Amino acid sequence: MGGVESHLYQLSQRLIQCGHKVIIITHSYGNRTGIRYLTNGLKVYYVPHMVIYSEATLPTIYGFFPIFRNIVLREKIAIVHGHQAFSSLCHEAILHARTMGMKACFTDHSLFGFADASSILMNKMLKFTLSDIDHVICVSHTSKENTVLRAVLNPRIVSVIPNAVVASQFKPDPGARDPNFRNGFTSSSYTENMSKSRETLLTKKFSLDWITAKGGDGPKRIDLEQMREKYLLHDRVELLGPVVNHEVRNVLTKGHIFLNTSLTEAFCIGIVEAACCGDVFIKYFLNWPNSCIGGVPEVLPRHMIIFANPEEDDLVDAVSKAIEMIRLKKVIPAKFHDEIKEMYSWVNIARRTEKVYDAISQMKTPPLMERLRRYYGCGVWAGKIFCVLIAIDYLIWMFLEWLTPREDIEIAPPFPYEKYRKVRKMTTIQ
Question: Can you tell me the distance from the alpha carbon of 22 to that of 80, in angstroms, rounded to the nearest whole number?
Fold first, then answer.
């Protein structure tokens, strides 16, 4: 389960505890289709949808509309909250929700560039979706600036609400670490500089027995395996590949240092989890005048982070500094954990999100002509195409209202939250 999925689950749980009705709509995963209930009665709709690559679904624009309309009417949904700019279901859900006169909110979890073809296409798609949106949430101030520029938004409708962490699930375990500091890294991605730096670190006489690489089977894994073969480091380097969600804490507590080599992160929930487990965090940043790229500098206090340029020598120096801090016992895992516990709470995130929901609930729903005016300003040619898409979406909605009137759609029975809580409380006591 990634950061976005974790955000969805934890936020939904806290909103349910606050008395809200929450459902999640996502695409099917293998044989998992239909409706599933999670903890506290969280209902998840797994919609049959074609997956084209890496759990990304095929954009259909209108193909999702009939089942989406049926779900939101059955569940009496008032606000549609979409997550992640790369999600085609998110874009389609916001489009259809606005056509149906519902309130819509969007949370952006990523940073994008402006120069390459994929970024230009994604930014134009985001501009299309957010031209008619009630509110936008970003996970860091850097992410807010990036989203405002990409989608040409009014900054007043963009709020910053970060991610959080369940600190009780990431408690430090001093017994899992070697007291002689023989465990080295828990790293989050594979890059060329990391591979070169590992060769230097491991061939130098550091008290560093093995490095745990976490995060997936990326294109640089082959380079890491070749490095391990070349220097006969099988007993010192362990490549785990993808790590299942319930094993993340066990992996993080084995190491002393968490190395993240991504140059652009909007927030990176992984570094918060690592710091909560008591790891020192090393992060790349581009050496621009007085600036650190990405939202990471906002996430943790400076005594938990060591920044390094994306160069071999600078990364080796940063790791050497981290090793020295640990040898001098300047890093106290329990203290790190207590600080993170005070800084991040999903209860606080849910309350701030509630305020956004309350604000957009008071807004007036714009008429069709106002929506067309907003889309028309998206570009000389793009604006006209967007207006055509919106007009077709409106006609499909009217056709669906005639074909299956909302009065004929059976309302889903509410989940018995009170009964569920009583039974769960009794079970816990027993």
Answer: 10
Local confidence band at 291 (pLDDT 50, 70, 90 cut-offs)? very low
Q: Which structure tokens are listed for 158?
A: 């963009």
Quick one: tokens of 145? 């600036």
The residue that leads in pLDDT, 47 or 210, is 47
DSSP E strands: which ranges in 96-200? 103-108, 135-138, 158-160, 183-187
Task: Please give the Cα distance from 257 to 313 (Å, whole number).
Answer: 17
Report pLDDT for 302: 85
Do 298 and 141 meet the contact criterion of CB atoms below 8 Å apart?
Answer: yes
- Amino acid identity of 252? L
Task: Measure the CA–CA gap between 344 and 341, rounded to whole angstroms.
Answer: 6
CB atoms within 10 A of CB 70: 15
**pLDDT of 375 strictly over 70:** yes
Computed on alpha carbons and rounded to an integer, the radius of gyration of the chain in Å comes to 24
Instruction: Report the b/e string of 108-140 with b at 16+ CB within 10 A.
Output: bbbbbeeeeeeeeebbebbbbbbbbbbbbbbbb
Q: How many residues does this entry show for the chain?
A: 430
**Which residues touch 166 (CB under 8 Å, ≥6 apart)?**
10, 346
Q: How many helices (H) and strands (E) does the chain have?
A: 16, 15
Is the confidence at residue 203, as pLDDT, over 70? no
Question: Cα–Cα distance between 144 and 124 in angstroms, integer?
Answer: 17
> In this structure, what token pair is assigned to residue 188?
């989050």
Tokens linked to 77:
């949904």
